[in-house]
Structures are given as C-alpha cells and as structure tokens.
Amino acid sequence: MSDAPRPTIADVARRAGVSKGLVSFALNDRPGVSPDSRERILEAARELGWTPSLRGRSLSTGRSFACGLVIGRSPDVIAADPFFHSFIAGLEDVFSTSGQILVLAAATPGRHETETYRGLASDRRVDGFVITDLRADDERIALVESLRLTAVTLGHPDIESPFSSVSVEDGAGIRSAVAHLAELGHRRIAHVAGPQTMLHARRRADAFTQAAAAASVEHVVVTTDFSAAEGAEATRTLLASDEPPTAIVYSNDHMAMAGLGVAQRLGIRVPLDLSITGFDDTELGRHLHPALTSVATDAREWGTVTARTLLDALAGADPIHVELSEPALIVRESTGPAPHPHPRGGSRD
Amino acid sequence: MSDAPRPTIADVARRAGVSKGLVSFALNDRPGVSPDSRERILEAARELGWTPSLRGRSLSTGRSFACGLVIGRSPDVIAADPFFHSFIAGLEDVFSTSGQILVLAAATPGRHETETYRGLASDRRVDGFVITDLRADDERIALVESLRLTAVTLGHPDIESPFSSVSVEDGAGIRSAVAHLAELGHRRIAHVAGPQTMLHARRRADAFTQAAAAASVEHVVVTTDFSAAEGAEATRTLLASDEPPTAIVYSNDHMAMAGLGVAQRLGIRVPLDLSITGFDDTELGRHLHPALTSVATDAREWGTVTARTLLDALAGADPIHVELSEPALIVRESTGPAPHPHPRGGSRD
DNA sequence: TTGTAAGCGTTATCAG
DNA sequence: CTGATAACGCTTACAA
C-alpha cells in the first residue's frame, strides 16, 4: 500500500555487494560472472522483487521490445474479417512469452498508412513490423527498409524484399474448390474475387482462372472490395446474366454468406440450382443453412509462425521464406451436383 | 542514406544558442521562455529535423504514452465479434492524434488475463487500460487500482470503482426489440443470452425479462457463450420445446444468424413462422435472406469517447460516467406479425 | 572476475 | 528569463 519506489539495479548491486555492471551481466547471463556472484545477485534480485526497467533498458540499448501491426483496410471492411483476431491471438501466443508486445495501429481518416508507419518508427516505438494484406508493388517494403527497421510480410511480395515472409498457398485452396466443383459436373463457374491490388486476392483469382481453364470449365471473375455488400452485388449480377454460373467460388466466407442470401432471395436453391464455396472457414458459415463449403486456413498458426520469424529477424537471422501447410477444402452442404441444363436459360443461342 | 545519428536536444540547444533546459521548456510550451528564444529554438529544431526522443522522455517522466487493451475472451469467440475492430478503430481515431499508442494484449493459453495486466504494468508499458467485457464483481478493477494505473471501463461496474466509464444503454435496444415484437402480436418470446457473468449480457437479459413481463408476454431465457455454435444449439432447443416461441431475441447478430440457419433447416419460415432479432447490426446481417432486424450501436463512437475519457483521466480529471446515445432497433425483414396459433402445436393442453 | 564511469535523451531543480 | 547540474535506470567499454 505504501508508495515504495521500485528497486533499481543499484539496490540489487548494493545488496549483493557487487557493482551495477555485474548485476547487468548476471541478468543477461553473459559470460564472465562467477557462479558464486551470479547466485548472490539473482538471490538479491529475488528478495527485492526487482525487475529491470524496460525504459532504462530501452534508452540504453535503443530497442523497444515491441512490434507493430498497422491495419490499413477500412475498419468497416475489416470489422467483418475474423482472420485478424485469430491471427493476432497467434502473434500474442509468441510475443507474450518473449517479453515483446504488440502495438496495434490503424490508419485513420486523419492519418494515412505510411504516416502511421513513420510515426511508430520515428518515435522508436517498435523494433519491427508485421506487414499484412500485401499489395502489388507494395510501397511499405521500401518504407520500412528506409526506416531502418525490419519486418515480416504475410505472403511473398511481388517485388524485391529484404524481409522474411510467411505464406499460405491459398491458390491450392481455390484449386481444390474448382476441382471439387468440376467433379460435381459444373461447367460454368464464377469467382467473386477480392480487390486485385491485394496480392492474396489476386493470387486466388489467378488460381481460379488457371484451375478452371485446366478443367475446361467456362469461367468469369468479378472483382469486389471483399465486403458483404459487394459480394451480394456481384452475386446479383452473375445470377442475372444470360448464362448464369451453376457454381460460385467466393474469395471469403463473408461474401459467400451474402451471396447465399441473394440466391435465397431469388428463389434459387443452394446447392440444387447453385453451388457456392467460401474461404476462411468461419464459425458462422458452419451454422448457416446450407452449411458453407469453405477453404480452411489456420490463421492462428500463421500468427505464431509470423511472430517467431519476426523475432528471429530482430535477432539478426537471415531472411527466410516459410510456407505453411496447404489450406484444405472443407466440404459441407453448399456444394452439390450441377443442375441439369434444362430448367433454366440456355435455349437462346 | 548515411547512418547519421538523430539530433538530440543538446544539438538543438547548441544551434539555438541556449541550454537544454530551455529547449525543453519551449517544446512543452511552458511559461518563462521569451518569444524570441522560443522562435529561435523551434527554428533550430525544424532545421535539424529534431523530434524529442520518446524514450528519454519516458525515462524521465515515468510515463509510457501508451494505453493497453487486454482481450480476455477466447480468440475463437472473439474472432467472430465485429465489435472489436470498429471499437479499436475508434480508439485509434483519438490516440493517433494524441501521440498515444494502443498496446494490444491477449490472454493466451500460457498466460492468464491478470498476469497480462500485471506484466504490462510492471514493465511500465502502458499508462492506463481500457477494460472491456466487464464482469460481475470484476477483479480487474481492484487489480488495476493496485497497479497504480488508471482505466476506463466499458459500462458501469456492479461494484465500487474509481474509474471513469463509458456506457451504452443496451437494455433500451432490447426493450425496443421486445416492444416491436409485442406490437406484432407475439405472445411467446425467447431470449438467447450471452454468458451471465458478463455484465452487458446480463443487462440485456434483464431488460428482456422486464420488457416481456411488462408487455405481459410469455418469455424464456437461454444462456450461451455468445458463439454461433451455442446460438444454434439454443435455437434448436427452443424450437423443439412443447410450446416453441414465435419470436427470438438474440443477444448478438452472430447467434441470430446461426439461429436463422437452424430455423431454415427445420423448414420454419422466418418471419412467417418465427421472428428473430439480432444485436450489433453487423454488415453481414443486412445481406442475409431475410435481412436481419437488429439493434445498432455505434462501436466506433464508443471507441473515440472511451479514448478521450481515458486521456482525460490520465491528465488527472475526475472520474466521469458517460452515457452514449441509445442504440436503435433497425427493423428489416426477419421480424413480422405473429403466426396464427392454429398451424403448430398448442392443442395439447 | 569485478569495479568504474561514461553514455542514452529527456525533465526537474535551483541558483544566477 | 537562463543555464548548469542532477536525476531517471540501464548497458557497455575500459580498467583493475
């Protein structure tokens, strides 16, 4: 209850009968401390309940013991994305046991993404960054490099990068979805893609196009901003076309669920008249009717591996490129055999 | 490109021909600096591109210029909750323009919630906390107090608290939902509630019970953990009962959407046979079929007000209790007139 | 193996 | 109004 000032390294040194310097050495277990002294020092520290001051340490070492995650997407779009929470939990799994903390910054109306990076760096608030939602020709890589900090990117950049990366081959997930649908007899499949400025959205779209072409299936790609609203809109457009697809591969679960709503509204039965697949395998998707067939990635593992990789980079390790296990297609109820061609359209040409 | 060390306050002082102390005074615009000197000092700082070192400042003032948000819920439950992203965006709206940062910590399998608070505090990594998901008899209040830090709670605690709070009267939202349903002729309404250890979940449940009783409507409450899975399970139980409700008020949108899935699966038409309401007004709910009637709160505004309140508290303001504007019921398609009593059940007693 | 002393970049104190 | 000087709590040469 008393406002006793916390003990400092000097208190420990005095109590152990050694110098401050030696306490520091003992603490960071560096060579050159006799077992005897080390024991006495640790003992004294324990008795005093001393923990080294991060601030003192920070000032003298020039490190922050913190990593930054800047969220650039608009909060309205991101609010719906369950990926982040699981990913962040994964980061924390590692950071929390390594004395690191996670600084979360969001670009706001009054502050652009790059300013956010600059601010965190110029205040020396972080030692490194996690770069998510990699974009084509992503300026953040050169930015972080110029800031003399390190980073780990989620996915391989499409440009030269000095940083480690941790990737998931989500193209494989899309390919399984297309293969699954082709096997069910679908000959006209659409893809509702995310923004093509985002590398992973583009990679999924490319994988879709290639897989569909390889399976000799007619295909279309519609681009969206990943939101439920645009997912719904894209679905309406597709279903209203002259030759509507019999299956739609969505680039995330939210758009797939919104698409399901659109289909139901039009009286189109899923999966009888239309098959749909999602991406992310969200909990909610499993409880809709029909339950959503979706590509499952392990966001939490992605987080732990990313954190470890960043810590290694901070410790001076050479850049590495980690490839996580391939995402798996979880088949549920929203995909089924292609409908017979008779009932709808098609007699026009 | 050269590794020039960044300028320090001493450099600025030298260049301006004054002492370090005066530079500090000028910077923090404190009285006792002649306009002339101040101008010279700011000029010198600008020329040198000097920014005060947060670390030096931190060591000397004992402040961190950071606030912490500890997430205690399991990531699997929270991953689905869109509230957090919008709320965090709101916090950032304010923090980003106040030189504060947000430290996000998650309780992990290896580290309990209280240890997380303790760790952040003992490392002096934050000056204050945002306490979310307030629980009955919440230990975190005494904890933060004993840590000699400040905090802002989301909602009023049910115990004595020295901290400011920012609340939304979500009971009002639930009451509108019940009133809306009663007006539509529903005489048997259920509530799928969140964990009753969480104050806001309990408040919603209480509001439900009172409103239903006041409207002389039969009512039941089923408790869940807020997840889609338990929301679905609760719905199955309710619909399988001898006297199933004709309307269900869910404590969040995710459970409502899962409940909708369950109803559809059972061939129960919404809103013809069953009306449902959600809470949060998520984007996705708007795109389902039927579009979800839901209670809308402004999470982002909650964030900005919370951040401002916390900043005030850090500046030494007396605790205040802010009440945000009442949430509004957004009526969409998932609620409709109560079904006629004939078709289902009811002829048994 | 250990002690000494000089930083790290602020803010605070207190005579001028 | 000014300007030394001393904290703040640590790390790290350099000496001993």
Automatic annotation (TrEMBL), chains A, B:
Keywords: DNA-binding, Transcription, Transcription regulation. It comes from Microbacterium terricola. This is LacI family transcriptional regulator. Transmembrane segments: none annotated. InterPro entries: HTH_LacI, LacI/GalR-like_sensor, Lambda_DNA-bd_dom_sf, Peripla_BP_I. Pfam families: LacI, Peripla_BP_3. The lineage of its organism: Bacteria, Bacillati, Actinomycetota, Actinomycetes, Micrococcales. PROSITE patterns: HTH_LACI_2 (PS50932). SUPFAM superfamilies: lambda repressor-like DNA-binding domains, Periplasmic binding protein-like I. Residues 7-61 form the HTH lacI-type domain. SMART domains: HTH_LACI.
